[in-house]
Amino acid sequence: MQISWRASGIVFATLAAFLVMLTQVGDADAGQRYSKQKVVYHINYPGGKDDKKYAGAMRNIQNHINAVGAKNLDIKVVVHGNGVGLLKSAKNTGKVQTAVANLKSQSIKFQVCANTLKGRKIPMDSLYEVFDEDIVPSGVAELAHLQAQGYTYIKP
To answer: What residues does each domain of the chain span?
Structure first.
């Protein structure tokens, strides 16, 4: 059986159109993989040697932003207990400060437990760029409040 040039051209054009359509569907799926997300990251642990745990947590958050896109995210970082050390460490020039500053520049909100500050007698000015609006009455209560509002809980 012999196929004419015209018939083979139609088959080729149909196949090409089908492949283009598949590519566009694949691109659309990749662009729509992640919808808008509300996430609360919970930090209540010490940073460890050389603040590696804090640096790792900040890297997790940045990776999250890179994957989903800042415009699709509402991220809050709640720190209490030993986690306040994150913002104490960020007060000193270095990797933690750079990471926290970078996240803040992408509209990531850091919320600090008033109970921890009061109980440990930690002055707000000993923390990196923490202002009155960043203080919440209770870190644990804030975590529960945000989860009730639909935020996904992550503890890096």
So the answer is: 1-33, 37-154
Average pLDDT over residues 108-135: 98
Question: Which residue shows structure tokens 């529960």?
Answer: 144
69: amino acid identity, one letter: G
Confidence grade of residue 97 (pLDDT, cut at 50, 70, 90): very high
84 to 57, 95, 118, 135, 137: CA distances (angstroms):
13, 16, 12, 12, 14
**pLDDT above 70 coverage of the chain, percent:** 79
What is the per-residue pLDDT for 29?
41
Residue 116 has pLDDT above 70, yes or no: yes
Q: List the beta bridge partners of residue 31.
A: none
Distance CA(44)–CA(131), nearest Å, equals 19
Cβ contact 40:146 at 8 Å: yes
Instruction: Decide if 154 contacts 41 (C-beta within 8 A).
Output: yes
Tokens of 132: 């009155």
For 37-154, CATH number out of 3.40.1260.10, 3.30.160.270, 1.10.10.60, 3.40.50.1000 equals 3.40.1260.10
pTM, to two decimals: 0.79
